[in-house]
Design goal:
disordered N terminus, 10 strands, disordered C terminus, alpha/beta, 33% helix, 13 helices, 10-stranded mixed beta sheet, 382 residues, single chain
């Protein structure tokens, strides 16, 4: 495990930094937060600007650094950027798109350049569901090929799955598929209705709990680690389950221990802007890729300055600013709810998590104030 995990001060540096190297992508995913386009933007960070950003990541000692998109393979300098990261001691994960550009030769070159982990998306247990999700036929098969190629050369693999109404019916089959694949981490994403993501595809609070139960059950026996993204209240669910296990006399610590690669996993409390930072293809700095509020641009300020000192990030790290039941919740320090989803549905990043069924003790539940689907903020360029 990464020795830095338990020493991160979220006020000083992030645990995870994600750089959207490009928005260019040949897929048209129905949930894409970036509404990616086929061609590269001429205002993307240049190679030199990208290397400078990587140097800043190294100086901040960020444990997890991810290159995402769009499709990072669309950048011809990708291997140079990964090699530079390796040279300055930054471990890199990559999230390429499963298109014809992702070949066995590319996977081999990625490892040779110094890639630490390959993360590919799988949003269905069948080609029909996954390919419809991704907007390209053959994407499911290419994803399976990429996993196999990475396994053959010893490159750790992460699977990303976004749950929504489009694939929730296949959750049991998806879980079964994860068990069959040789992976290091299953990263379970929960839809935030921004970009192409639609409010009508969002799961209900009760459905979140149902997914939590299945994920937690798998975590007890899986050979790989599991983490959630934009489902901060899964941590509350886990604590509740483990409390029940301890009451039953079960050894919860050994039951859930996993041997993962040195990239490690995040400590409790991680949230949008709190241990997490997202840099867009143009250098804009956001609390996450799903929360379209800019705190500055690395072309004008150092990343550390923006992360530590911007009013936006400082406010998001201040749990006293949480509203509704999140503000009254006894789990707010380790959870805090999705700030991105709260903003997407209410326009207020401090509002309560819209998809959490838990009601804090003594809290009088109030009806949520949500936007209509037609007025949801659409994330463009972030």
């Amino acid at each position: 495990m990464n020795p830095q995990i338990n020493t991160i001060d979220f006020n000083q540096r992030p645990f995870i930094a994600i750089w959207e190297v490009t928005q260019a992508c040949d897929l048209a995913c129905v949930h894409c937060r970036a509404s990616a386009q086929p061609d590269r933007d001429p205002f993307e960070l240049s190679t030199d600007e990208g290397k400078n950003l990587i140097d800043q990541i190294a100086a901040l000692r960020v444990p997890v650094f991810v290159l995402t998109g769009g499709d990072p393979i669309k950048r011809p300098d990708l291997f140079d950027l990964i090699d530079h990261a390796r040279c300055v001691g930054v471990r890199v994960s990559l999230t390429p798109s499963a298109t014809p550009l992702l070949t066995k030769g590319i996977v081999i070159r990625l490892k040779e350049a110094g890639l630490a982990r390959l993360a590919v998306s799988m949003d269905g247990a069948s080609a029909a569901t996954h390919d419809a999700f991704r907007g390209m036929s053959g994407s499911f098969a290419r994803t399976l090929d990429a996993v196999r190629w990475a396994n053959e050369i010893g490159l750790p693999v992460q699977i990303n799955t976004t749950f929504s109404r489009r694939n929730i019916a296949e959750i049991d089959q998806i879980v079964a598929l994860m068990k069959e694949l040789k992976i290091t981490l299953w990263s379970v994403f929960f839809l935030v209705p921004t970009g192409r993501g639609k409010l009508s595809d969002l799961l209900s609070a009760e459905e979140f709990e149902s997914v939590f139960a299945k994920v937690y059950s798998l975590s007890r026996t899986a050979s790989f680690d599991i983490k959630t993204t934009e489902a901060q209240h899964y941590r509350r669910f886990v604590l509740q389950q483990r409390a029940g296990e301890r009451k039953a006399g079960l050894d919860t610590d050994s039951m859930h221990e996993r041997s993962v690669d040195a990239i490690g996993r995040a400590p409790r409390g991680l949230n949008d802007g709190k241990g997490f930072v997202f840099i867009s293809h143009k250098g804009e700095v956001f609390p996450s890729g799903f929360l379209p509020l800019s705190a500055g641009n690395i072309r004008e300020q150092e990343l550390a300055t923006i992360y530590r000192d911007s009013p936006l990030f400082r406010d998001l790290r201040d749990t006293s600013k949480l509203e509704g039941k999140c503000g009254s919740c006894e789990f707010k320090e380790i959870c805090g709810g999705s700030r991105a989803r709260a903003h997407a549905l209410t326009g207020n990043p401090h509002a309560e998590e819209p998809c959490c069924s838990y009601v804090p003790k003594g809290y009088v539940k109030r009806p949520a104030q949500m936007k209509t689907a037609s007025t949801l903020h659409v994330l463009q360029g972030a």
